[in-house]
Amino acid sequence: MIQLLQTSWEDRFRICLSLVRLLHYLAHSPLGSVTLLDFRPRQFVIVDGELKVTDLDDASVEESSCTSNSDCFMEFPARNFTLPCSVEGRCQSMNEKRNLYNAYRFFFTYLLPHSAPPSLRPLLDKIVNATGELHWGIDETAAQLERVLNLYKSGEYLQNTTRVPKAEYRRVPEAHIPDENYRCWPSYHHKGCLLSVFDVNEAIEICDSYSQCKAFVLTNQTTWTGRQLVFFKMASNHIVPDPDKITYVKVTD
């Protein structure tokens, strides 16, 4: 978990999204609603950036039987819940809600909000709080996380922010700055500041927000959401030709 907290928010969001998609499948599986009774991080692995469950020994499709709501008691270390007993004598959505609360306490609360884009924080906080209180089922949780993904991929999350560049930048096509790195967190590169951006304007906004940033380099690499990876630099003293990159140099502060 400590290693995951050191990765970019985009990668942590992908883990949570893949977990919710998995839990949505389990809630609607051909066998019925499947719960993971031994739900812990060690039961999962990350494959190509997405969470996969590896241990199904303690999976169950049996919804608990009941005669009253008091029979539908779910106990967790931090809090407890009582779910309604259906007329058929089964605890309503207990398997689904158990999975969802475990996802909240082991993954969402750590991975979703931290270092997220500020304009997405209210929606992410709403998701974390709603799952932590079990106000939502898996269908609504999945729909809200897909909404976050769409806002992020489309750049709509930037529309509610004020984007007034503090500095002017000179565009240098087919050019790269090989050195002049500084570190930022979180970064896709442990020795430099490599971040993903929706467009050049967002890169300018990020560079303006770092006092040490004097230039940035657009690469031809993208993340899983299609966002462009950008190196942010502390100087532009040594610019070299590179047909796959575009450099922007700050000319005024």
From TrEMBL:
The protein's name in its UniProt record: Protein kinase domain containing, cytoplasmic
Domain FAM69 protein-kinase: 3-129
GO CC annotation terms, alphabetical: extracellular region
Organism: Zosterops lateralis melanops
Domain of life: Eukaryota
One BP annotation, GO: skeletal system development
A single MF term (Gene Ontology): non-membrane spanning protein tyrosine kinase activity
